[in-house]
């Protein structure tokens, strides 16, 4: 799978997750894919930023869905600004 295909698949995963985040007043954006397409950096936005369960959301929802679309991804990090 090329880097471009990985990016497309990660975006598909985020598109699947986004409606759930938006229904709670949040959102997510892709910042980068690094380390030979094994690390995804995202940014949780809106209500997700201060949410007490955002790490759980990141691991059980976001990371799991991204890995479903792009199995070579090993880690998903939320980069806070």
Task: Walk me through what this model shows.
There is one protein chain. The chain has 81 residues and is of the alpha+beta class. The chain contains two helices and three strands. Helix 2 links the parallel strand 2 and strand 3. Helix 1 runs antiparallel to helix 2. The chain starts with a helix and ends with a strand. The mean pLDDT is 92.
Would you identify the regions where 5 or more consecutive residues have pLDDT less than 50?
none
How confident is the prediction overall: mean pLDDT? 92
* Biggest pleated-sheet summary: 3 strands, mixed
State the helicity in percent bands. 40-55%
- Radius of gyration (CA) equals 12 Å
What structural class should be given to the helix and strand makeup?
Answer: alpha+beta
Largest beta sheet: what is the strand line-up? 1-2-3
Give the tally of β-strands. Answer: 3
Order of SSEs, N→C? HEEHE
Q: How does the overall form come out from the CA principal axes?
A: globular
Cα(first) to Cα(last) distance is 31 Å
- Count the DSSP helices: 2
Strand fraction equals 25-35%
């Amino acid at each position: 799978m090329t880097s471009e295909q990985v990016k497309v698949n990660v975006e598909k995963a985020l598109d699947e997750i986004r409606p759930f985040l938006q229904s709670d007043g949040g959102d997510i954006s892709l910042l980068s894919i690094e380390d030979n397409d094994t690390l995804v950096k995202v940014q949780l936005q809106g209500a997700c930023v201060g949410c007490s369960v955002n790490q759980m959301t990141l691991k059980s929802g976001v990371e799991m869905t991204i890995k479903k679309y792009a199995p070579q991804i090993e880690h998903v990090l939320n980069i806070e600004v």
